[in-house]
């Protein structure tokens, strides 16, 4: 028979797994910059480019531009050496950290429950004596099960923590940032956009 603690742990693990696979993929990063005739600069991920229009995703919104609106299109590939290459460390499974915390909390609660049951069994041994051995045995069994659940939760917590700390190094190219100083002089510097 599954108790409430085991059911809660199972739900936490399933939730962590589904949340970690629902993370956005890195293919949506900025790879195109559009300079429009009205002076606007649009940075985003190039979705489609044909003879009539350019479709760009900026964060979660999609924008469509016709060529008569666009002064210049710059992509990372067209920059060549102008695009800076950086190496970043990413943690794609960081959502498992929530499972580590939840399982750690459940482990602590189970160990606390075990110590309470052992204390009550000791009190029964001391004051009731051997008359109520059934109740004492029941409390010792409850303490043993709680310790087993506590150690299982501790192992799951440690495994979830280990999974959340798996990192991947990835090389990315980034656009130089366009800006102006206070006196209107154009400046150029490299930035990394998450």
Kindly list the characteristics that best describe this protein.
2 domains, two-stranded antiparallel sheet, SH3 type barrels, alpha+beta, 194 residues, 5-stranded antiparallel β-sheet, 4 helices, single chain
Could you give a quick summary of the protein structure above?
With 194 residues, the chain is an alpha+beta fold. The chain contains four helices and nine strands.
Question: Care to describe what's here?
Answer:
There is one protein chain. By secondary structure, the chain is of the alpha+beta class. The chain folds into two domains: 4-23 and 93-164; 31-81 and 180-190, SH3 type barrels, CATH 2.30.30. 44% of the residues lie in helices and 29% in strands. It is built from four helices and nine strands. The strands form three sheets. Strands 4-3-2-1-5 form a five-stranded antiparallel sheet. A two-stranded antiparallel ribbon has the order 6-7. Helix 3 (96-127) runs antiparallel to helix 4. It is rod-shaped, with a radius of gyration of 29 Å. It starts with a helix and ends with a strand.
């Amino acid at each position: 028979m599954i108790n409430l603690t085991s059911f809660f742990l199972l739900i936490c693990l399933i939730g962590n797994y589904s949340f970690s696979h629902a993370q956005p993929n890195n293919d949506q990063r900025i790879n195109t910059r559009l300079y429009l005739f009205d002076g606007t600069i649009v940075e985003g991920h190039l979705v489609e480019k044909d003879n009539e229009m350019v479709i760009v995703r900026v964060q979660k919104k999609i924008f469509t531009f016709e060529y008569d609106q666009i002064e210049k299109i710059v992509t990372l590939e067209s920059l060549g050496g102008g695009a800076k290459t950086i190496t970043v460390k990413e943690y794609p499974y960081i959502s498992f950290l929530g499972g580590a915390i939840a399982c750690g909390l459940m482990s602590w609660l189970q160990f606390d429950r075990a110590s309470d049951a052992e204390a009550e069994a000791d009190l029964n041994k001391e004051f009731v004596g051997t008359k109520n051995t059934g109740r004492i045995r029941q409390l010792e069994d409850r303490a043993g099960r709680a310790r087993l659940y506590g150690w299982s939760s501790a192992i799951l917590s440690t495994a979830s923590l280990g999974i959340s700390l798996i990192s991947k190094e990835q090389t990315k190219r980034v656009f130089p940032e366009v800006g102006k100083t206070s006196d209107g002089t154009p400046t150029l510097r490299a930035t990394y956009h998450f």
